[in-house]
Amino acid sequence: MAVNNNRKIKRKVRNAYIISTVSIALVLFLLGAVGYLILGALNASNRLKENVSVFVMLKDGIPEETSAAVKRQLETNPAIREVKFIPKDQAAADFQAYLGSDFVEFLQTNPLPDSYEVKLDGRSAETGALSALEKQVMSWDGVDEVVYQRNVIEQVTSNINKFNLVLLLFGGALLIISLILLNNTIRVTIFSKRYLIHTMKLVGATRWFITKPFLGGSILQGIYAGLISWAMLAVMIAGLHEGLPEVKFVSDQLQLLFIFGAMMVGGILISLVFTAFAVRKFLRMRTDKLYLY
């Protein structure tokens, strides 16, 4: 009879340990997935912004030296990653191809000026940074106008910010719920060993001596949970790349290493902190309350 009871207790402890490990892994997977999607959205936003062209229109009849000076100033600007000169004849040809008619023949003149097409770094393509760059460029000799799609940039930034906010709120709500459930799950795991903790207290064991093996087990549990969550996230990433090959998600190795590293560290910390609080609770519990808990 005693042997059967011991087996049942061991089975319950093992099942509680497995459940808490899987629960931690699910929480880590949730956080990793949210972080991965947010980084993917930010990277997509940067790529869109980098593809937005800014046109620096030059004044008619300026000397070549002035045009070359404008180009040098553009190329030395750290916010600009690419500068391309577009002569007025090429601009007219491109516009004619877009319209499908020869507007130069109709107007008897080419109203389009020489210009520079500028591509910006994604981080510098914000509306505020662009406005500051526009003011700076407009003060240069030979520059007539700076033209870019302000509405497109503002719309992209607004949509990405809304998407990230929704993800953060959704992930935050699920995180709070998951942590509450995890706290109860880990407490149940420690609860199954409450008599062992009480016995060690009776024989004079110090609190650190009692707590140390539980903390060591929690670190191992966090590592297991981290490995499980890694596998789940890797499957999700592979599925996204397979199902949506046209969408470029996070591909930077450093960003992926940061996500996976944060998941492992998070798993260890979650298991360690909740285990420490649960053990502390039973260490402080009075003997007459032990059987009522």
Automatic annotation (TrEMBL):
<dbReference type="Pfam" id="PF02687">
    <property type="entry name" value="FtsX"/>
</dbReference>
<dbReference type="Pfam" id="PF18075">
    <property type="entry name" value="FtsX_ECD"/>
</dbReference>
<dbReference type="InterPro" id="IPR004513">
    <property type="entry name" value="FtsX"/>
</dbReference>
<keyword id="KW-0132">Cell division</keyword>
<keyword id="KW-1003">Cell membrane</keyword>
<keyword id="KW-0472">Membrane</keyword>
<keyword id="KW-0812">Transmembrane</keyword>
<protein>
    <recommendedName>
        <fullName>Cell division protein FtsX</fullName>
    </recommendedName>
</protein>
<keyword id="KW-0131">Cell cycle</keyword>
<feature type="transmembrane region" description="Helical">
    <location>
        <begin position="165"/>
        <end position="186"/>
    </location>
</feature>
<feature type="transmembrane region" description="Helical">
    <location>
        <begin position="214"/>
        <end position="237"/>
    </location>
</feature>
<dbReference type="InterPro" id="IPR040690">
    <property type="entry name" value="FtsX_ECD"/>
</dbReference>
<dbReference type="InterPro" id="IPR003838">
    <property type="entry name" value="ABC3_permease_C"/>
</dbReference>
<feature type="transmembrane region" description="Helical">
    <location>
        <begin position="16"/>
        <end position="39"/>
    </location>
</feature>
<comment type="similarity">
    <text>Belongs to the ABC-4 integral membrane protein family. FtsX subfamily.</text>
</comment>
<feature type="transmembrane region" description="Helical">
    <location>
        <begin position="257"/>
        <end position="279"/>
    </location>
</feature>
<feature type="domain" description="FtsX extracellular">
    <location>
        <begin position="52"/>
        <end position="146"/>
    </location>
</feature>
<feature type="domain" description="ABC3 transporter permease C-terminal">
    <location>
        <begin position="169"/>
        <end position="285"/>
    </location>
</feature>
<keyword id="KW-1133">Transmembrane helix</keyword>
